[in-house]
Specification:
184 residues, Immunoglobulin-like, 2 helices, elongated
């Protein structure tokens, strides 16, 4: 009964283990690297838009400075938005999201995209009814009708054409409008 059983030599076993390890690494790299690369692209997509939209706080009118970022009555809220950035960045902007926040934490958001109609927000003194998003260097003022809800603060978030909503770009505390400001 005594057949000689020979085991694999240690050198062959080591080579097979190395081949198995390298094969596994190649397969994992083929799956994991594209996944990571895709997520990194998405995570850095908004970096250039961190401060793209800002609230324009001062306007000069007959030697009098006043703010449109204010509320009038119980339901009208003004927001003057400036687009900061170059023309190249403007090409990827699809619009912005305004978030109106109450002290108690309740909030409502409104998306503003060029050419769209939204029932509760309009452009100030606009001849056209469609909304327009400011381009690089422009300022546009919007009026939101809250339907009687009272808000204390507004935040603005860039919306990219890819559909991504970026992190907050700016925020402002609301004050009562000065007498020479008419949001109606």
């Amino acid at each position: 009964m005594g057949r000689n059983k020979r085991a694999l030599s240690p050198v062959i076993a080591t080579v097979l283990l190395l081949l198995l390890t390298v094969s596994a690494a190649i397969i994992i790299a083929g799956v994991v690297l594209p996944f990571i690369r895709g997520n990194l692209d998405k995570s850095t997509e908004c970096v250039d838009y961190r401060s793209y939209f800002t609230f324009e706080e001062k306007f000069e009118f007959e030697d009098d400075s006043f703010r449109y970022n204010c509320y009038q009555g119980d339901n009208l809220y003004g927001a003057s938005i400036r687009a900061e950035g170059n023309e190249e960045l403007s090409e990827d902007i699809g619009g912005f999201k305004l978030v109106f926040i109450q002290k108690l934490g309740d909030s409502v958001s409104v998306e503003v995209k060029s050419g769209e109609l939204v029932s509760d927000i309009r452009m100030l003194d606009a001849v056209k009814t469609e909304l327009e998003v400011p381009k690089s260097g422009e300022v546009k003022t919007y009026v939101y009708d809250s339907g009687g809800k009272i808000y204390d603060k507004i935040e603005v978030y860039p919306l990219l054409k890819s559909g991504r909503i970026c992190q907050i770009s700016d925020e402002i505390e609301l004050i009562k409008c000065l007498p020479n400001v008419n949001l109606g």
